[in-house]
Amino acid sequence: VLSLVSIFCIRPRRKIPLVPENLLKKRKAYQALKATQAKQALLQRKERKGKQVKFKRLEWFVHDSWRQLRDRARLRRLKVKPHGLEAPDRHSLAFVVRIERINGVSSLVQRTIARLRLSKIFSGVFVKVTPETIKTLRIVEPYVTWG
Question: Taking the complete model, does pTM exceed 0.85, yes or no?
Fold first, then answer.
């Protein structure tokens, strides 16, 4: 009986492995990061599930192609048509405002609008009036107004 008591009373202590404090901090930060990433992934999955597929009718594509054809024809005519606008001798500024949507226009017009930094409707920018900017403004004439 004495041997049993001595076994229960005097048992060897388990040594707890010592981990440096900086490693514990890193582990805790990593766990927090993983938790936030999991939350974000769950939110994104919910968002994706909730979004509906945008359905475009055939008429939309037909209308879009007609508009692009009209725009290309306008740009072709613009190349040969003389214009009465000349760049002033002295330096001057013009304020350009976008007034139309550019859905279904040629890529040249879209690039030019982007180059003028007119991303939203009724947004405006100041431009220096030079022969190059006049050419640029003639390309996007139906979609902007300037003066």
Answer: no
